[in-house]
Specification:
By secondary structure, the protein is an alpha+beta fold. The protein is 25% helix and 23% strand. Strands 1, 2, 3, 4, 5, 6 and 7 form a seven-stranded mixed β-sheet that branches. A two-stranded antiparallel ribbon has the order 8-9. The protein is globular and about 75 Å long.
């Protein structure tokens, strides 16, 4: 079905329309990119090379390309802007490389007055997950880029950073990161998102390590194994076993791949959440 032709009145309105009649507002994207390295949850940060907040660490992000007058050529979609900024500021390849394995979803919108000292800027934040992402290389206007352990950032539940935290985050990125972490932790309860942190094939102990890293809680191995296999469509067996034996010299664990489930039923609740519900 083709779009209706604009009326002559609409054409006249657009011809006379002057965006300078309104207060300027800009749109940016920020990306909370998470991965697991050395058994710990890490977030991707870039060190700002220019004001405002030059020298401080921040989430990868930047302005959305609006294109020419009335969103002409080179205008980009929000999700495309998120992928572009992630690639430009880290050196990760957007096509056929590391970013091709990234799970990307919109997290939320942040537009509090004064969140950016330059002007009224509204940011659309995205959440990204991927397994075994390589060390980033700073690009664009970033002076440095690094995977940083989430636990080292001193985040509080209110979205602030504890006094004495040395790696301070610019803008309201501590709030955005805290929201992203809570989204990730919640989605691991009700969706198979944890498999996005694993390779194409994985063991149940490797999957449990993902849950422990993201939730920040130790899980009972036997109970976790039983719960995972009791959820229809969560994982499916490959029929093969891992090349490595068990931790205590036992049989080699079985390999699994992500199943076709989109929601987990029953859900895998965090131990602390199970206590709250009881």
């Amino acid at each position: 079905m083709t779009a209706p032709e604009p009326s002559r009145g609409e054409d006249a309105f657009l011809a006379d329309y002057d965006p300078r009649d309104y207060d300027p507002v800009a749109v940016t994207v920020d990306v909370v990119a998470l991965t697991i390295r050395d058994g710990a949850l890490h977030v991707l940060l870039v060190r700002r090379g220019h004001p405002p907040y030059a020298g401080m660490w921040a989430l990868p992000g930047g302005f959305v390309q609006a294109g020419g007058p009335l969103q002409g050529a080179d205008a980009e979609d929000l999700s495309d802007a998120a992928v572009r900024e992630l690639a430009e500021e880290t050196g990760l390849s957007a096509k056929g490389g590391a970013l091709g394995r990234v799970h990307l979803e919109q997290l939320g919108t942040y537009g509090s007055p004064g969140r950016d000292p330059r002007m009224r800027i509204i940011s659309v934040a995205y959440l990204a997950f991927a397994p075994e992402l390589p060390d980033p290389e700073a690009g664009g206007d970033a002076a440095d880029a690094a995977w940083v352990p989430v636990d080292a950032l001193g985040l509080t539940e209110s979205g602030d950073q504890r006094p004495g935290t040395t790696r301070r985050l610019a803008f309201d990125h501590a709030r955005i990161l805290a929201d992203g972490l809570e989204r990730a932790r919640g989605k691991l309860e009700y969706t198979p998102l944890a498999t996005a942190f694993c390779g194409g094939e994985f063991t149940v102990p490797e999957l449990r390590a993902v849950y422990e890293a993201v939730w920040g809680e130790e899980l009972h191995a036997g109970n976790f194994h039983r719960k995972v296999l009791s959820v229809p469509g969560f994982v499916e067996s490959t029929g093969a076993t891992s090349d490595r034996g068990g931790r205590r010299g036992g049989p080699r664990p079985r390999l699994y791949r992500a199943g076709d489930a989109r929601l987990l039923h029953p859900a895998l609740l965090r131990p602390s959440r199970e206590e709250e519900i009881r």
